[in-house]
Amino acid sequence: MLHTYRNERSYPFCPGCGHGLILNHLDAALGKLDLDPKRVVIVTDIGCQGLGDQYFTTNAFHGLHGRSIAYATGIKLADPDLKVIVLIGDGGTGIGGAHLLNAARRNIGLTVLVFDNFNFGMTGGEHSVTTPPGGITATTRGGNLERPLDLCATVSVNGASLAWRGTAFDKDLPEVIVRAVRSDGFALLDIWELCTAYYVPNNEFSRRSLETTREALGMQAGVLHREERPEYARALRDAGARASSGAREKPLQPRPLPAQFTSTLDREFRLVIAGSAGGKVRSTARIVGEAGILSGLWAAQQDDYPVTVQTGHSISEVILSPREILFTGVTRPDALVLVSEDGCRMAGRYLRTLTAESSLFITPELAGLETPARKVVFDLEAAGIKGSKKNLGLLMVSAALRKLNLFPMEACEEAIRRGSRGTIADENLAVLAASAMLP
Amino acid sequence: MREFIDGATAIARGALDAGCTFFAGYPISPATPLLLHMIRELPKCGGVAIQAEDEIASISMCIGAAMTGARALTATSGPGISLYSENIGLAIMGEVPLVIVDAQRMGPATGGATTPGQGDVQFVRWGTSGGYPIIALAPGNVAECYSLTRRAFDLAERFRVPVFLLTDKEMFLSMSTVDLASYEQVEVRPRGLAQALPSDTPGLRAEESFLPYRFDPLDAPPAFSPYGGEHIMRFTGSSHDEHGMLTKDPVKVGRLNEHLRCKIEDHRDEIEAATFDLQEGAHTLFVSYGITSRAMAEAAKTARDAGHAVSALTVQSLWPVPEDAIINALCGPSCHTIIRRVVVAELNLGDFRREAERVIYDWAAHAYRTPPQIVGINRVDGELITPVQFLEQMV
Prior knowledge:
Chain A folds into two domains: about 20-240, Rossmann fold (3-Layer(aba) Sandwich), CATH 3.40.50.970; about 270-435, Pyruvate-ferredoxin Oxidoreductase, domain 3. Helix content of chain A is about 35%, strand content about 20%. Chain A has helices at about 20-35, 70-80, 90-95, 95-105, 150-155, 175-180, 200-205, 205-215, 230-245, 280-295, 340-345, 350, 380-385, 390-405, 410-420, 420-435, and strands at about 40-45, 60, 85-90, 110-115, 120, 125, 160-165, 185-190, 220-225, 270-275, 300-305, 315-320, 335-340, 360, 375. In chain A, the strands form three sheets. Chain A has a seven-stranded mixed beta sheet with strand order 2-1-3-4-8-7-9, sandwiched between helices. In chain A, strands 11-12-10-13-14-15 form a six-stranded mixed beta sheet. In chain A, strands 5-6 form a two-stranded antiparallel sheet. In chain A, a hairpin with an 8-residue loop joins β11 and β12. The mean pLDDT of chain A is about 95. In chain B, the strands form three sheets. In chain B, strands 2, 3, 4, 5, 6, 7, 8 and 14 form an eight-stranded mixed beta sheet that branches. In chain B, α4 links the parallel β4 and β5. Chain B has two domains: about 1-180, Thiamin diphosphate (ThDP)-binding fold, Pyr/PP domains (Rossmann fold), CATH 3.40.50; about 275-390, 3-Layer(aba) Sandwich (Rossmann fold), CATH 3.40.50.920. By secondary structure, chain B is α/β, with parallel strands linked by helices. Chains A and B meet through β2, α2, α4, α9 and α10 of A and β1, α1, α2, β3 and α3 of B. β2 of chain A pairs parallel with β10 (about 235) of chain B.
């Protein structure tokens, strides 16, 4: 057992400041825990207490104001067996409030010691989230009007394993720290103390005031919360291991598309599919692209849709070419398939560029559309095809491909089989077959 | 053999193949697909992926994990880079190997969440206080999304610095055909690990068996030891001495900050990268990067098919700026300076043109030469720059 985890350096704190007391308690606790200093990381951020890591012989991480809990989370996630101890000020718990809340919710195995002296001691005594009502600080000169944050209650209702409130003068603090470090989950100790540079002189505050202030606020002292929940860093790894136990191969490896069909296409061909969100526009475009590659072509696909994904338009541009495609923008389509009104509304930019050489594939409702392009009207009713709206895009594009003759339809079948499984593939293959019935 | 793939998947695969073991991110268009890939796939490789509570936590967790030995990756878009800003500085100061993917979207502010942009070029370079160098790579096609991700990890590990991979909504989400042979298998060399120093090493503290911030020579990244490893490790974002203890000693602070500069700047030749497509007799040099370089390549082909000579330079390392490559491109394949106009095309107000102007005017001044005209093609309406726009700018 090591006698001390303190190094030879002396603390830099003001006379009467509570920080040194708390750090001594931490040293005593580490001694009782008898941990390998290489397995302990003390994480600090900004504020006088943030200097604290420099006085210990353990590992240390000194980061940005209020972020120590987030760094500590990264350290613990990377090595769940490390003992990670966060030293944070009341200021840090304010600016880093989101990290505090979420660390508690996760119940990640950190021990957080809050050096709570009700103000910012390093920058000149400004108020913090824990300044008591009426407290005089550099930024609350007429007395603090904001309700102090109850740190223990906050982490308790949000899933922490352990919450304790006390003062730097409490003789049992080393025992409490030992208990917190030994507990697996998220533990927060709200340690009230004196800032003799600012809060004490500005408020005639004293050791006795720590108790009277707490009582006036109706806050309790001691262990206020205890809860058994799985520790997050290990739970996340366990969940990952479970999810990957059935994994057969290295993930995300290439899915090669061999050129098993042939195409007579001798120039770049641009197809635009304009439909609605939820109408399988993008997956249809992907089938076309993959069928092209299966036919020895190069393909590119670019999609446009609003930020809300289940409403409004969905437009896919597909380029097919016998050579590598460099620029992927489509300014003038060779073929335009208008699947829905949503798509039609957004397709003006393409419609305007159509010439007598272009093909326009539409449903009877749009038969009146004026365009120099060759119009092909797909009349589903006349062809006796009944199908869901969601498959209309694939149906029209399949029928269009039959007319455009870019590659054999078997390439589309192969693309569907390779790209999806089970009922989705069956449904798409049925739609592809039905498209032959359109005149 | 070819495959049909988007940039996000290529980057995710590149990261996994680079040995990435940690990912933290927060959902944002258009970067979210990388978060989803990593959440789904990283556990299968024994790594850890998490959706953090915000972008500040994302990069903070990555920094903590990286110093615990992980190869860490995060991904966001411009608004998220804003929130990364302070921690980018921490990663520079603490010398953290970290890869940051920026799937750029059109700004400012929320801008166009599903619209491509290239407006973060200067932002990532100067996005944190102090002005210290970072590295930023820009893949020019989907195959490079894979290989430059691997290279980003290699550079991050070697130089212990944040490395940005700058891409955009179209490159990230659009599907391309990639010949599997074009995926370059870039080696990722691990960061140098610390050896125990002799216990009688002068200045060594009692608890120390190595010095976490000793630079020997000054331009070399310090040796690394992870938390939980063989040595006691100190990390700090404050000005520090070789022990990682805070210091205001001007000699030590000056040395530290010079180290942070020269470990990148003195190794520019190992980092700078560009792709040349030069032609004898060209009077016009196109310069571009990322998605815009696709239109540039198409324009060059069209011009040459019509019998017009043109040169093109695709910038792969935006930071450091490939200065020699730009000058070499000006001089043409056989070093006759005949370029009369340089056309810098980008989806922003001229982020990289500033750099091209700086490099070219500086060269011209020193060489007593008349610099070529430098013009920009700049588009910020959410549409891609077209090949025709390039052709219109030819001499």
